[in-house]
Structure formats: structure tokens, C-alpha cells
Amino acid sequence: GPGSGKGTQCERIVKDYGLTHLSSGDLLRSEVESGSARGKRLKDIMERGELVSLDIVLELIRDAMTNNASSRGFLIDGFPRELEQGVRFEKEVAPCQFVLFFDVSEAVMQQRLLKRGETSGRVDDNEATIKKRFHTFQELTKPVIEHYRQQSKVVQIDASGSVDAVFGQVKSALESRGL
């Protein structure tokens, strides 16, 4: 969920395992910062805490993968956030090997997001938008986790501990999957 530590753990995975990190959120924010017409539309959507259209997200991810075609592999952070995204990604872009699910309470996630919001400058790190993001996660993203769990592709990580403790679990999970 939002504030579960995905981005932090992804940085460490990339450093230790040499994968290319693609964050749907970073790709979206980069597009917003570009000042393009699409970026301006995305900014409005993100400020409301809503999800961006799947066509745009898939296009951004596909472009990023194409631009890094020689990569050892891809670590896609914050995607899919709803079931159709996962289905279409696997059909139109690439198969998913497995999913790391960083499980942590909403109270801890909110505390982390508000702290990050003090310095991040992110338009979606405020209390009202955080509540909306939690609701979106519960309604739309939890079914994605269940979909991949039924395919035995979910590796659940207890993300409530320290960065190092969580990464210890991540390393075990990755190594058990052959990385």
C-alpha cells in the first residue's frame, strides 16, 4: 500500500541484484514535471488521489522497458494497482514472474507518508489524499494481490519493521525465487 516502503526496498534490490527499477509513480511524476499536456492532465488526476488511465501507465512502462531492453530484469514498483492492469500488462507487455507484497498497517503507512510529505514536495502526501489512497488500495489493489496469490506468485513481506529487517525478508524471498 501507499507508504509501505516499496520505493525504499526497490532501491536496495536494484543495488544488490542489478535489476532495472521502474516505478509507475516515478514515471508518472516525471511526466508531470515535463510540463507536457499529458503531464498537466496527470497532475490534476494525482492531486485528486485518483488512478491514472491504464493506457497511459502501460505506455509509460512499455517505453521505459524498451529504453532498457538490455536489462537483466525489471522490478516494477507500485503496479499493477487494479486487476485489469495486471491482466493487460501480462497480455500486452510481459509476463509477471512474482509479486512482492509489502504488508503493513494503515497507521504505520500514514505516519510514514506524513513524515515524507514534510520534505518530499509530492502533491499526494497530505492527510486528505492519503485517506483516499488507502481507500483506493483496499477497493482496487487488494483484489490484485488475491489474483496473484491464487497463481502462487505472491511473496508477502512484513513491512512494519526497520528498513534492514524488511530487506532481510526481501533477500530471502528473491533468493528462494532464483535471483
Write a brief structural summary.
By secondary structure, the chain is mainly alpha-helical. It has helices at residues 6-17, 24-33, 37-47, 54-67, 83-92, 106-120, 127-150, 163-176; strands spanning 20-23, 74-77, 99-103, 154-158. It contains 8 helices and 4 strands; from the N terminus they run H-E-H-H-H-E-H-E-H-H-E-H.
Number of strands: 4
CATH class: Alpha Beta
What string gives the helices and strands in order? HEHHHEHEHHEH
The order of strands across the largest sheet is 1-2
Shape: globular
Percentage of residues assigned to helices:
55-70%
Query: Which second-level CATH architecture applies?
Result: 3-Layer(aba) Sandwich
Strand content range: 5-15%
Count of individual domains: 1
| Biggest sheet layout | 2 strands, parallel
CATH superfamily: P-loop containing nucleotide triphosphate hydrolases
State the secondary-structure class.
mainly alpha
- Would you tell me which CATH topology applies? Rossmann fold
Cα(first) to Cα(last) distance is 24 Å
Name the descriptors.
single chain; 179 residues; mainly alpha; Rossmann fold; two-stranded parallel ribbon; two-stranded parallel sheet; 8 helices; 4 strands; globular
Task: Give a structural overview.
- The chain is mainly α.
- It has one domain: Rossmann fold, CATH 3.40.50.300.
- The protein is 61% helix and 10% strand.
- It has eight helices and four strands; from the N terminus they run H-E-H-H-H-E-H-E-H-H-E-H.
- The strands form two sheets. A two-stranded parallel sheet has the order 1-2.
- Helix 1 packs across helix 8, helix 2 packs across helix 3 and helix 6 packs across helix 7.
- The longest helix has 24 residues.
- It is globular, with a radius of gyration of 16 Å.
- The two termini are 24 Å apart.
- The model has no long low-confidence stretch (mean pLDDT 89).
